[in-house]
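Q: Two folds, back to back.
A: First:
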Amino acid sequence: MRPEAPGSHELLVRDHTVYACVMGSRAFGLATEDSDTDRRGVFLAPTALFWRFDKPPTHVEGPGEEQFSWELERFCELALRANPNILECLHSPLVESVDDTGRELLALREAFLSRRVHETFTRYAHGQRRKLDADVRTHGAPRWKHAMHVLRLLISARDLLRTGVLTIDVGAARESLLAVRRGEVPWPEVEARMTRLAREGEEAAARSPLPGEPDRRRVEDFLVRTRRALALQPGPYDEVVQGVVRGRGVGEH
């Protein structure tokens, strides 16, 4: 009998997560007493689910509070585009669980990194800065927590472009960033820091050790091998798949 399709979306996260970590302020070293615990993960949908008209989801919110997971292919696709949230997830210092597939994914971290990060990190930071400017015009002050995270992102991008290494924990910058969050730094000074960091990022991009493009072929090879290996494993979803993989036509016995 064919198993129930997700309502079981959450079961994909529960039963097929290959990598799970904590992100947000706790990973950045910026947590305070009232900080949430943001959990992020990657699940590997059984290959057989892709043989149906109704494909598995590209992402699932939950089942826990502040929990969000991506299917492996979608995660890799976004990482190859240098999505800041995805790349940071791959480099979280707070790993909660990882299996063999997850370890292979983590071993590919540098394959996703390229000078594209300059555009994507900076574009995201500029978008957030425009919202902060609008807050200042409307309310007389920015949302200070958001201002702190824009600074954090610009520091991260600059240092990544300089070194080729993405570091998540802010380290020695913690206290100066938390002072911004508390509203203790005048907005003009915060603006000046943002402008300076953006300029330093631009300079770092010009001579960055990062390659111009990510290693798409290496990532795709990992994805194909992983899908194929899973297709050959028996499971509750794959009455049809096993026959096709072994060379029989659908409906043949």
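A: Second:
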Amino acid sequence: MTTPADVHDVRDPELPGRLLAAERDALVPLLRSRADADWALPVAACPGWTVRDVLAHCSAALVRVVENRFESGVFSPGSNERDIAERAGWAPARIVDELERGMTDAGPVIARAGGALDQVALGEWVHAGDVRVALGEPGAYAGSSLPEALALLVSVTRTLGHVPVHADLDDVDEPLKLGEASGARPPGRFIGDAATLVRLYAGRAADGPYELAGVEERELVIFG
């Protein structure tokens, strides 16, 4: 059974960094073990992008955080495509090196940002799941860092004032309370496994059974 990290109304500034570090330790060795040809595999969650494109986007985003480079339009589709194009000639090992650096160094920067960049860390974790699906690897949107990811999902949805949802997860001991808690709207209800919950909030297709009441799937999505 997986138990999510303790979640409080007060933001834990170290949580995004812990999630990135845990995912770094799992993902980087996996990427270094794969053949270069695997980098051309399509990523279903990101139409038009390959494994290379997703990882180039991830590494570029984290380096922007580390170097405090947030020009106008940053993280827009056009900005993301330019970041990917800049790395088109890089060997896979160089992209992994940059990704490893970003996952190591971005945590303290995100911690100091007061919550404004927490969603970046969660997005990196989700993209790692996208890559695992493309590579046929187990543990997509789950794995050993799931407790930290769920705790960060709760924190991010509260910060965003997102639709309230109570989630009873098959593989987590305690229910999660996501979104704002003002009482202005009765909370929706989710029943299913944790990976499916993450998929829905990330705008990914569910691949297992679940129940959702009082809220529509489209309302859950936090990544544009």
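Q: And?
A: The helical segments are 15-33, 51-67, 77-86, 92-112, 118-135, 146-159, 194-201, 217-220.
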